[in-house]
Amino acid sequence: MTVGPCTLEERDGEIASLTRWWREACAGTGRLVLVGGDAGAGKTVLVEEFGRRLGAVRLLRGCCEPLTPPLALGPLRDMAHGLSPPLRRHLTGPADPVEARRLMLEELRGGGDPALVVLDDAHWADEATLDLLRFLGRRIEACPAMLVVVYRQDEVGARHPLRVLAGDLAALPVVRRLTVPMLSEAAVARLAAGTDVDPAELYRRTGGNAFFVTQVLGDGGATVPPTVRDAVLARAARLEPGAREALDALACLGTRAAPWLVEAVSGRAADDLDACVDGGLVAADDGAVTFRHELVRVAVVEAIPPGRAAALHRRALAVLGARPPGEVEPARLADHAERADDRAAVLAYAPLAAQRASTQGAHTEAAAHLRRALDALPGGPDAHRAGLLEELGRQCHLADDLEGALRARQEAVEAWREVGDDRRRGGALVGLAITAAHLAREIPLGEKACDEALALLAVQPPGPEYALACAIRAKLSGMAFRNADAVMWGNRLLAMTGEGTGPLERALALLSIGIGRAQDGDVAGLDQIGESVRLARGTSAHDLAGLGYFWLQLICVTRRWYREAGRWYGEALSFTDDHGQEVWRQWLRAFRSRALLEQGRWDEAEALASEVLRTAHVDDGRRMLAMVVLGRLRSRRGDGDPRPLLTRVRSVMATAEPVVGWIIGSTPALAEAAVYTGDLDQVDTVVTPALAAAAAQGEPWFLGELAYWLSRADGPAAVPARAAEPYRLQLSGRPREAAERWQEIGCPYEAALAHADTDDEGMLREALAAFDRLGARPMRDITARRLRRIGARDIPRRPSRAAGPDGLSTREQEVLTLLAEGLRNAEIADELFLSRRTVEHHVAAVLRKLGTSNRSEAARYARRNEPAVRRPAMPPLPRTS
């Protein structure tokens, strides 16, 4: 940590790691480096010193600010002066986030010098910036660049967006992680040498916080203040009144501002600002002034009396509001307006800030701006309020805050009813139906809202609201497997718009028709969905295109059209990744994990399902589907108890519309688990009521699977006429034909189940070999027992589970990795969806096999042997060292 300009304590290892990764980046293999540590640990100083030692390199540096909400793509704007003219122009206009990401990738791929990109204070990053990092992280390997992301570990909790991002990227080979610890007592003593400060007292008070240490030593006093705040304010108290006023103005303006702006807001001369620099609280930085650390700014801000702070924000609002249009971000103006308690200004700037954030892909921030505007409105019926609520619902939906979207859209419907505008109320009802369709338990609400919207809009002049209502009604019909209705609503939409059908309306209609046809078994319906996607992409209707890709995967996987699913999967994943559509991307990967499970590619299925489970924000269908995949894997492998996962799914699905069951598949998963444990009463309990609903619904694969598992509990049963062919063959007592059909489809486990459903020794041995290849221990044991009962001899022994070079099983390796991250047993249980008792057994086994006496020794082993230790599919961010 620096005290003088070039003194760095206890950072040789970190500098060496950064240097090694930089060399790899210069050689053409890009790196994404996550640098974490507590506030004041010296993360920024470390990275700055690293950059200084590199000498003349292409350095692009941006910083996230603690604005509420944060400025969209703020770090990119900071580094704009070092970017290419096309990207710079793009950032100063109405930035398209997709184009901004593409241009930034071109910057890093360019044929010039390798680039060092530093993004500081990423714990304050906005949604668009996080999407940029996600985009670049997946592509930087092919770039001569190193992207360093600096963040405070103590501000990044389990559900923090940055932790979700880091988990999403953690499995990539380009990612490196660095934790900057606090200084040791010996390091603090070395820094305090030659001063009057007692080093032991300095360490005790600061805890080795590098920034706190330098503040105390830089003040020159012998007394150590009790807190960082006291140390900062002690230095600020020595300023002359004019300099202190300039310091207060800068604190209200943010971490960084132009000198002329500080002078205009504070009313003080340049000499007073210079005194702040001389006092060590503020630094000059590339034509601007900035606090030496955010902790300094926070300490100064908190010491400003409320009345004076409001007055400074009013001055800032007046000065910045008078600048030419487009020069100052409306988000900054809205922030000053709120802090100045100027409601009229909030209403003027917050909606503009929301619009700007939305165009840049920062939908979470857009929603926050809209809430700010709504708080500034008076009560009572008001069209402005209704419109803001409607837009809030849209932004929440785009931000994957489906619960927030549902509440806002319900309020918008009521607000338009109070205003008396039936057309706008109909449009709000359509929006409500869109969000409700994404929440399994709210599908009935979506159907009701859509029908009400259609009734209201049918008597209004033709408009896009009615077309969208028809499209959503068709989608809801498709989700309920009412395929004829889906086709009918799609055709109605085409007929309504006639020959002059626009591409967006045509895309909506083709999507509905394709869904209905494909779900009825007509593969040609997939091409109509594909045409819908093409039209949507051509009109930049990105979310509609993502919806089309979702349906392509849903239908192909549920109907077990794996070849067609693979045909569309790569294209769909690339599109959703390029366009920052994490919700659709997670749905695609959830369906892919199910397809991999069914095709016998179990390790791949586990990795994908674990990723979805750890990164999805809400307990919607994505997480439920991932839980079912993992639950079925545990059932089939005999790897732990699947009930915690499957029971959780069942509790969520209990409030969902029954038709969603065929998408998620929790009921047959529970039945399967019960069969393997011999709990046949449980099979009957969960399957019997679902089977009646499935028969009415008519989805053939879901219906057939339910009937099959019920037959395992109750014996031969009636064969549902609409059940999928392999299940009908199996239920009809034709196991060999059923197995052949399963093999043709590409489902080796189901084929083995069919072979095992007989007393034929040859077929049973085929089943046994298949179960051994898959690692399906429960069915392997059941099949071996059946072979013994029919008098078969020379039955192969059960293969032992594969272990790593250290003797640890796959699960034990995962537990060891999380243990090395500093997680407690309860946290490991939460990460891996295991019971705490199971984790305790795994930890004990790890310690025994490694010959270590405690968790710390095991953690050190893991860090020394990291390549040999298997990481979970989505590990958490590193904990504080």
How would you characterize the overall build of this protein?
- This protein is mostly helical and 881 residues long.
- It has 46 helices and 8 strands.
- The protein has a 5-stranded parallel β-sheet with strand order 2-3-4-1-5. A 3-stranded antiparallel β-sheet has the order 6-8-7.
- Strand 7 (282-285) and strand 8 (288-291) form a beta hairpin.
- Helix 22 packs parallel to helix 24 (464-479) and helix 29 packs antiparallel against helix 30.
- The protein is globular, with a radius of gyration of 31 Å.
- It starts with 11 loop residues before the first helix and ends in a 17-residue tail after the last helix.
- Mean pLDDT is 88; it is low at 1-6 and 867-881.
Please summarize what this structure is.
This protein is mainly alpha-helical and 881 residues long. Helix content is 65%, strand content 5%. The strands form two sheets. Strands 2-3-4-1-5 form a five-stranded parallel beta sheet.
